[in-house]
Amino acid sequence: MLAVENLVAGYPSGGSVLKGVTFDVAKGEVVALLGRNGMGKTTLMRALAGQLAKQSGSFRLDGRDLGGSPSYAIANAGIGYVPQGREIFKDFTVEENLLMGVLGKPNLPKRLPGDIYDFFPILGERRKQKAGTMSGGQQQQLAIMRCLVGQPKLVLLDEPSEGIQPSIVDEIGRTLQTIARSTGLTILVVEQNLDFVETLAGRALFMENGVIADRADHIGELRDKPELVHRYLSI
Amino acid sequence: MEATIALLLDTANFTLALLLVTLGLVVIFGLMNVINMAHGEFFLIGAYVVVAVSNATGSFWLGLLLAPAVLAVVGLLVEWLIIRHIYHRFIDTILATWGLSLVIKQGVVVLFGPGAQSVPNPIPAAVDVFGVQYPAYRLFIMALSAALALATYYLFFRTRLGLQIRGVIANRAMAASLGINTRRMDRATFAVGSALAGFAGAVMAPIMSVDPQMGVGFLIPSFLSVLVGGVNSLVGALIGSGVIGGATTIFSAGISQADAQILVFLLAMIIIRFLPNGITGGRK
Questions:
Q1: Which chain A residues are within 8 Å of B280, Cβ to Cβ?
Q2: Candidates A87, A91, A105; nearest CB to B179
Q3: What share of chain B is helix, strand, coil (3-state, %, to 5)?
Q4: Mean pLDDT, rounded, for A44-48
Q5: Are strands A203-208 and A211-216 parallel, antiparallel or unpaired?
Q6: Which of A62, A96, B135, B281 has a CA positioned 20 to 30 A from the CA of residue B231?
Q7: CB contact under 8 A, B179 and A91
Q8: Largest CA distance in chain A
């Protein structure tokens, strides 16, 4: 589904952070992207979302080359993005935030589906509340639903557990797993919390210095091969 | 008493026209981070559309209808030809739009001459308002401007297009990553903002001296309104226009125009000194 080939990207001032990233994600897979801070994980997510221009290489979704497309075109081609820090619209209500997820999509009705609050009921209770007044965990749930309501084929999920209390992290992990299993949603997730990764992901890629340095083709290897975790994750 | 009522009506009149110009300025700045120095000239073109159409057809009303449409097209062209290439270079947008304002002003001088044009009052009657004989046309300006300002607020706060535009203002990158075509929002907003300024110029033409400098005369108070009300706030545009429009008319009643200007500037400086982010603060 997603084919990334020799992707080089970075910030206009600081040269390239990604130094030739190559990997594939098949339809229905949940793939974790692991690595220490500063190895290029978030840069890769931003590049795939079109928020950073690529310098060379390519990435394709279902065969369609999206490298170099503006981010709204990438979103409308089916790549959903839940960024680090959530980036919800703080002054908008929960409902307005969710509406923002469908209004730009040319093929979707410009209203919210009736079952939108089934996955995270707290969002339904608070739908008229300003999103900025909610807790970090609720905002993360909102950011995830805002993405899913746009019916993406692939979701880029950047550090969904960051700064969120453990009980809500578990809830988010389980709900995402339910959604992924029932709808065949494809997810690429950057995450530091290994419990969360083991709940959700089927396999893992390890990133180091702007390239995919290693991989665990089965998520169980995170436990079976502690040297992998030690090599790429411990500080 | 009668003088007070007339003064209040004049204040409302100027404030509402100022609000239309200010709204465009605020939205364009909020959305694209572009300070449009040519916005006053959009007001100017609106007035000259009325002059040209009145001269050609004898109908003021046709001019009033055409002016916002002409300015919407002018806005789209300016956005497409100039702004979209440089909107991420803040200082350059100021220079470029200032240059554009000079070109428009000189273009008007070439086409219509440097002198003042007059547009006859289309509704010469006077109406009795609480015992004051007040020009009917000024009441018409107020009603129409208020309706248009309300419609603009409705567009931004109650429609889905407005929600998307406010979303782009709040977080452009995220709105784009939700599939919202930010370029289309830029164009729509530039067109609406320009059309509002053009309408304000057209509707004010019969009660102002229509000359090539009239745009600057409106741009400066509307910049002050933005600063006083709060940059990036549509509600601030309303408050700022009220303060600046009100102060300008009230001071002008008692003293000379120049002294009134000084007082208005002083008032703005005092407000900004104590409320650096404007009366609405950081609210968006």
A1: none
A2: A105
A3: 80, 5, 20
A4: 96
A5: antiparallel
A6: A96
A7: no
A8: 49
